[in-house]
Amino acid sequence: MALPNSLFFSSCSSPVGLRRSGISDSHSAPHFSSIESSIIRKNFSGCGSITNFSAKKNIVYAANEGPNAVSSTSLTDQDADYIPMPIVLIDQDSDSEATIVQLSFGDRLGALIDTMRALKDLGLDVAKGTVLTEGSVTQTKFFITRLDTGRKVEDPDMLERIRLTIINNLLKYHPESSEQLAMGEAFGVKAPEKKLDIDIATRIYVKEDGPKRSLLCIETADRPGLLVEIIKIITDVNIDVESAEIDTEGLVAKDKFHVSYRGAALNSSLSQVLVNCLRYYLRRPETDIDSY
Q: Where is the ACT domain (predicted)?
């Protein structure tokens, strides 16, 4: 069920700048060792314009000037038996003008050009991207806006399509990730050996987050369409979703929603109603939503 675009509205007034990304405001590149320079050339050969470097965290920033603006390959060789934790994070709260998508799969992260093209096929513009390497983990961030409006993505159906598109691309180029993703079975790759007990995996609670909103935290077994289902449950009890952080971590979805009721934070009674409704549905995914 498509929901109104006004459902998501970030309360953060200032967009994420270079400082938030850990990138220097200066356009002069600091001195790099030969190893660091080699890594940068390897990761961004054929890119658009590379505007800034930060030696502290080895962050590379690239502006998007075409489909080949960001590319990345593995930085180190790992043991073949080791499979890192795949993480896909969609952040609606940190930037008032763009939806931030973060992808991490150890240092195996590759085929980012194809990921960008897949997002463009959804009618989205990848305005810019950053790649951060810390230790053995490579994290890639895309700043996404709608091509038709130039604004951040607000429709939960589209947010779910973005999430599933990125996961599908991850499975395509790293089929070994399916062993740690619930979507491995859903997309017909390899089902994960570990199965989560939904009763044990599901945790839901509401925290205070100022006088005008509350923070709803949900942790449950991941599955396709989960985001849209959660938001439908929330709106069915007349609670507004202001912004969200959607985190897919292996087999588990760890989502946070800033919610309010008639412009105010949820009281204890309404919070309990919301938690009970969500827990009832999430623990019984085969149950018809309209039955409770």
A: 215-292
Spell out the CATH class of 198-286. alpha beta
Longest dimension (CA), the chain: 64
Dihedral of CA atoms 76, 79, 85, 88 in degrees, nearest 10, equals 40
Distance CA 19, CA 17 (A): 5
Decide: pTM greater than 0.85. no
Strand, coil or helix: 210? coil
Tokens of 236: 């069915």
What does the pLDDT profile of the chain (292 residues) look like in tens digits?
334 333 433 333 333 322 233 333 333 333 333 333 333 333 333 333 323 323 334 433 333 444 444 433 443 444 557 889 999 999 998 999 999 999 999 988 877 888 889 999 999 999 888 888 888 888 999 999 999 999 999 999 999 999 999 999 999 999 999 989 988 888 888 888 877 887 778 999 999 999 999 999 999 999 999 999 999 999 999 999 999 999 999 999 999 999 999 999 999 999 999 999 999 998 765 544 343 3
Got the DSSP string for 53-107?
EETTTTEEEEE--STTS-----SS---TT--PPPEEEEESSS-SS-EEEEEEBTB
**Calpha distance 55→79 (Å, rounded):** 27
- How distant, in Å, are the alpha carbons of 32, 49, 57, 161, 251 from that of 45? 17, 11, 20, 29, 34
Hey, what amino acid is at 15?
A: P
